[in-house]
């Protein structure tokens, strides 16, 4: 279980860094029209926080005492994905494909948080 959780954490960290880099090069409206309601300043702050989250997912491999960060970071990323779902729903966009993607990412985050809190803490 520990190996699976580490693999998922590394994949989520890579996913999160990719999302952060995307946020630095594209505005929310350029990413998806329904996310255009997110102000550019908040979009950039989310990018910075995502980089910190990615570090928080993998730093326990080097510094074991930071292991308590992993569930917090995973739940933050899940919350961000749910925020994107809410903004998308509020926009009235009839396409639900992006929501399915965000919900799958949120589910992986919830599994990581549960795994690190209950199944196999670091």
Strand content: under 5%
Distance linking N and C termini: 11 Å
Q: How many runs of DSSP E, i.e. beta strands? A: 0
Derived from helix and strand composition plus strand pairing, the structural class reads mainly alpha
Largest sheet: none
Total number of helical segments?
Answer: 5
| Poorly predicted regions | none
SSE succession: HHHHH
Overall tally of structural domains: 1
Name the helicity range: over 70%
Molecular shape: globular
Mean pLDDT: 94
Characteristics:
single chain, globular, 76% helix, mainly alpha, 0% strand, 122 residues
Topology of helices and strands:
Elements: H1 2-25, H2 28-31, H3 40-58, H4 69-91, H5 97-119
Please provide a written account of the structure:
There is one protein chain. The protein is mainly alpha-helical and 122 residues long. 76% of the residues lie in helices and 0% in strands. The protein contains 5 helices and no strands. It has helices at 2-25, 28-31, 40-58, 69-91, 97-119. The protein starts with a helix and ends with a helix.
Task: Give a quick summary of the entry.
By secondary structure, the chain is mostly helical.
